[in-house]
Amino acid sequence: APAFTVAIDGPAAAGKGTIARAVARHFGFAHLDTGLLYRAVGALTLDGADPVTAARALDPRALEDARLRTANVAQAASRVAVIPEVRAALLEFQRGFARRPGGAVLDGRDICTVISPGAEAQFFVTASPDVRADRRWRELRDKGDTRTLGEVLDDVIARDARDSQRDAAPMRPAEGSMVLDTSEMSIDAAVAAAIAHVEARG
Ligand code: C5P
């Protein structure tokens, strides 16, 4: 089967991971959550590693670590993600994944703008900070985390600012990408809209 790339960007907790997984399942495409690459490097720096060395030595097969899903690691990820050499070290793996035969879905911050600007289908999935913080807070609460909604909102806002204001591959909607604002949309409706858009591009 030929390569077909679905590229999905957007801020934290906008629903891009859920949409990416559903689109991949629907079309039988492979899925890469590129945030895990930055989270893995971020986690290694919390253990004292140098970020550029860690990124160059990263084994993408070691990405299933549940420890990567914590708020501390998310903040560490967004701090290493501003470093151009870190981004450069992770580029080839992502480009290769995007062009694998049989189709691929990648979600992150710079997939449409940098990793795969030629992707056949491109999305910017977003939602208001309040809605995203509320979603993330409910998820964390269900896992037993005791942080307040206000603390989660502060985290979301800090990470948005760092991701969209950095010089290296800042998060922004690519020209020609479909913008899906999920603030007032159910996940099912957002997934259906994304699948319809991919089908129309195929
Ligand atoms: O998507 P996730 O929340 O796991 O991403 C963690 C951090 O990794 C983001 O806040 C961002 O700084 C960085 N990232 C990035 N480019 C990507 C994916 C993630 O800079 N393609």
Would you kindly provide a brief summary of this structure?
Helix content is 52%, strand content 12%.
Structure description:
It catalyses: CMP + ATP = CDP + ADP; dCMP + ATP = dCDP + ADP. By secondary structure, this protein is of the alpha/beta class. The protein is globular, with a radius of gyration of 16 Å. It has a single domain, classed as Rossmann fold (3-Layer(aba) Sandwich), CATH 3.40.50.300. The protein has nine helices and five strands. A five-stranded parallel sheet has the order 2-3-1-4-5, sandwiched between helices. The mean pLDDT is 95. The structure holds cytidine-5'-monophosphate.
Assembly state here? Answer: single chain
Terminal CA distance: 13 Å
On the 0 to 100 scale, the average pLDDT is 95
Mind telling me which CATH architecture this is?
3-Layer(aba) Sandwich
Biggest sheet record: 5 strands, parallel
Tell me, what's the shape?
globular
> Helical stretch count?
9
Low-confidence stretches: none
Q: Tell me the series of helices and strands, N- to C-terminal.
A: EHEHHHHEHEHHEH
What is the CATH topology assignment? Answer: Rossmann fold
Radius of gyration: 16 Å
Number of strands: 5
Give the cofactors and ligands: cytidine-5'-monophosphate
CATH level 1 class label:
Alpha Beta
Structural class: alpha/beta
How large a portion of the residues is in β-strands, by DSSP E? 5-15%
CATH superfamily: P-loop containing nucleotide triphosphate hydrolases
Subcellular location: Cytoplasm
Binding site for ATP: 10-18
Family: Belongs to the cytidylate kinase family. Type 1 subfamily.
Organism: Tateyamaria omphalii
